[in-house]
């Protein structure tokens, strides 16, 4: 039996789709700024293994000599990024959505199961819930990263006016390093998120577009489909199995009684 299950409220969907292009512009404009002082490299002793970024990378994306353009875009879109993130956190807290989103004591164990399944080591699929353990950890980490980007960005943008903030991160240089690492984290998240969306298919994607999914409810309780935990599901499935067994037993008893009458 198939059932329509609500997945994401309208506000969450709006803020998700606003954040997607905004974060892309922030990363892109950040690259235009970084080009003017691209000092970060991966070293092994005195040998440079990788430079962020090779000249061919800049040339292919037409990045050189666009510092002013990058700063203009970055300083405008940072306010959209900040306000959208702030509204998201406030909505999550006051609407009660945080109950589904924030990790709990089972999240890390569930996340490990998700990783094993995605690597095809474990055949058992993760339970159908609003956010599984891995998603809870990653999405909460993204919120923390967003706060870190805002704070380190202010420390870089106004190192005199926000001198206390710059010192908190260990100085201007360290603030810039943290800001850069967070940006690499967003890029990694982008790639993994898009891969997982493609892997999950249209039904999952529809949840973030239309707000619902069509699921097969066989073996799942309504509470489980709407965001309950795995233990609730096991209990529900046990009750369902007991019910089925009882039905079977009743059917057999009726049949035996009829045979006896014959």
N/C terminus separation: 38 Å
Low-confidence stretches: 221-262
CATH architecture: Up-down Bundle
- Count every helix, treating DSSP H or I runs of 4 or more residues as helices: 11
The major beta sheet can be summarized as: 2 strands, antiparallel
In short:
By secondary structure, the chain is mainly alpha-helical.
Fold and architecture overview:
By secondary structure, the protein is mostly helical. It has a single domain, classed as Transmembrane di-heme cytochromes, Chain C (Fumarate Reductase Cytochrome B subunit, Up-down Bundle). 69% of the residues lie in helices and 7% in strands. The strands form two sheets. It has a two-stranded antiparallel ribbon with strand order 1-4. Strands 2-3 form a two-stranded antiparallel sheet. A hairpin with a 2-residue loop joins strand 2 and strand 3 (47-51). The radius of gyration is 25 Å and the shape is globular.
Topology:
Layout: E1 2-6, H1 10-34, E2 41-44, E3 47-51, H2 55-60, H3 67-95, H4 98-101, H5 107-118, H6 133-157, H7 163-168, H8 172-200, H9 202-209, E4 212-216, H10 222-225, H11 230-261
Antiparallel strand pairs: 1-4, 2-3
Descriptive terms for the model:
69% helix, disordered C terminus, mainly alpha, Fumarate Reductase Cytochrome B subunit, two-stranded antiparallel sheet, globular, 11 helices
